[in-house]
Amino acid sequence: MATSMQKLVGVSEEDDEEEMEMDVKEEDDEDEENGEKQIAAQMMIGVDEVMPSTSSSDQFQYQPQLQEQVSNQGGGGGARRSRPLEEKERTKLRERHRRAITARILAGLRRHGNYNLRVRADINDVIAALAREAGWVVLPDGTTFPSRSQSSPAAGTSAGMTSSSSQMVSQQIPPPPATLQGVSSGYRTTVEYNACRMKSVFMPTPSPYDLSSTAPAQSSGVVADGGEQTERLPLIAGSLQVINDKQIIGLPTKLPERDFAGTPFVPVYVMLPLGVINMKCELADPDGLLKQLRVLKSINVDGVMVDCWWGIVEAHAPQEYNWNGYQRLFQMVRELKLKLQVVMSFHECGGSVGDDVCIPLPHWVAEIGRSNPEIFFTDKEGRRNPECLSWGIDKERVLRGRTAVEVYFDYMRSFRVEFDEFFEDGIISMVEVGLGPCGELRYPSCPVKHGWRYPGIGEFQCHDQYMLKSLRKAAEMRGHSFWARGPDNAGSYNSQPHETGFFCDGGDYDGYYGRFFLNWYSQVLLNHGDRVLSLAKLAFDGTCITAKLPGIHWWYKTASHAAELTAGYYNPCNRDGYTAIATMLQKHGAALSFSCTEHHILEQQDHLREALADPRGLVWQVLNAAWDVCIPIASENAFLCHDRVGYNKILDNVKPVNDPDGRHFSSFTYHRLSPLLMERQNFMEFERFVKRMHGEAVLDPQV
Questions:
Q1: What is the CATH number of domain 268-694?
Q2: Where is the composition biased (Acidic residues) (predicted)?
Q3: Which of 16, 90, 324, 391 has the most CB atoms lying inside 10 A of its own CB?
C-alpha cells in the first residue's frame, strides 16, 4: 500500500533523500566559490574604511566585513583564512540533518495530507498550501490576500468594533486551516492529524449566520459601554447577544444578508406529519390537511414528502398491502398540482427524538421476532433493538420463507404497481429508500430506549447470531478465527473515547484486529445498501432514488471518530469512510440525502465543544465525497427552524457562495409541517425562504 501511495504523490522519501544529497553537494561547490569571492571582498574593505559612511544601513552592511578584516589580520596578517576541514564537515552534517527532516515532513504531507507539493518544495510552498486551504489567494510572486468572498481581516479589532454594530458584524476573519482549529489541549495533536484528509477539498466561506463553535470566523468581539472588549462569541438567532459576567448586551437584529436573486432554482418540499396516515391506513384529518396544502401551494412550495410506513401498509399478513390512505393523499396532492417525494419506511416510528406517534414494524414480523429475536440488531449485553431488522438476515429465509431483501423488494414493487399513474405523470419525483433506523444507512448504535444520551459514543450492534455468523466467516477467511468477536474494550453507550481502550488515542481501533473488525463492520453496511438499492433501482426504474445519511458530528475532532465507527462509518482521522458510500450510490444512480446540520443555539455551544464536535467539517467531507463522484445531493433541516438566521444558514449550505464549479443541492425538504409553521410570522419567514431558494428577489432583504 505504501508503494501505491508513493506513486500517487509522485515522490517518495527516498527521492527526497537523494534531492537532499544533491543539494548538499551543490552547497559544497558554493563554499569554494564563496572562498574566492571573500578575497575580492577583503580587497574592498580597505577602500571602504576610508570612504565616509552615509547612512546607518550602510554601517550595518559594512560592519561584518570590518570585523572579518580585524579577525583575519590578528590571525595571519590579513591573509585569507582557510576554513578548517572539520567545520566544513560539521556544516555538511547539519545541512544533511536539516534536509532529511524537511524531506520527511514533505513526504508526510504528500502521503497523508493530499497536499499537491512540487518535487523540490520548500517552506514557502507549504505556507502557500495552508493559505489556500484557509480560503486565501496566493499569487505566484507570493502576494497573499483573502478571496473576494471574504471580507478583509479585522485589523485593530477594538477600534473597528466601536464604530458601529453593523460594521462589527460585517467584519469576518478568514477561517484558519482545519489543523489549527482550537480544541482542548488534550486533543490538539489528534485534531491536527484528523484534518489531514480534508486538504484540497472545497470548504465554503463561513456565513455570518454560522452558529458553529467550530467556525471561529463567525465570532465577533463586542465592546461594552465602558470600552472593555468582551468575550468573542458566535452570532445567535436574530440578535447578537454576548454573555460577559452574566450581562447580556443586545444589538440590532439587522445582519448582512447575501442576495440570492438569480441563483439556481432549488425546489422546496415540506415533510408531512408522521401521523398523517393512521394505523388503519386512513387520512387522519383530510380537511385540515387540505387547507394546509392549499396554503403551501399559495407560496409556490414545490411539493410534499410523506413516509409510506411498512408497519401500516403490510401490517397484518405477508404480502397483503393496504394503500387506501395513501391513494387519497396522493390524489389530493395531484389536484393541487404539487409534487411528491415518498419514503419507503422499513423502520418503526416512536423510538427516536421528535417522534410524536408510534408505528411499530408489521405485526407478523413482531410475532417472528418473539420466537426468534435474533432477527433484530443486538448489542454486547444481549439487548435487542426492534426498530428495524438486522442486516444479518438480508439473505436468510427467516420471514415466512422470504429473506429480508425479498420482503423489501416485494413492498417496493407493490407500491410501484399501485401508483403507476403517479409515476407516469411525474407526480412522484423522488423515492427515498429506507436502509436502517430512522430510514438512514447506519447501525442503530445510539438507541435512546437503551439509555444512550448525547454525546455518548454508542455501541457496536453485531451480536445477533446472523451477524456473528458473518463475522466468524470473515475471521476464518483472514486466517484468525479468534477474531470472530466484537471488541471487549469499546465502552458502553455513554462512554467517551478517551475512557475506552478501543477508541482512545493509539487504541485498538488502529491495531490489526481493530482494522479487521471495522473493515468487516463497515462492509456489512455497504453490502446492505448495495443490495437494497439495486432492487429499488429495478422497482423504480426511471425515477430518482435516494439514500439518507445522518450527521454524526460528535467526537469528529478526535483521532478515532468513535461515534461514527459504532454507526458503521469507518472514518477515523487516517481514512475516508464516506467515499466508498458515495461510490456505491453512484453505482445505482442514487442521490444522497443529507441533513444540513444547521448549527445549534447558544446553550448548546458548550456541548459541541465538550464533545469535540465539528458539524461543519463533517458536512463538507460528506458533500465533497458526493460531488467527487457527481451524484446529486438532497437535504433537509436537522432541527426545527422558524427564524431568519436559521434559514440563511440553510441557504448558504444549499447554495455555496464560493464553489468554483457552481454546485448546489438538487432539492431541499423542510422538516416538517406543523401548526407552529403556520403561525403568521413564522409562515412569512418561510415564504421568504422559499422565494430565495427559487432564486427570486425579495423586497425586504434587511427587515
A1: 3.20.20.80
A2: 12-34
A3: 391
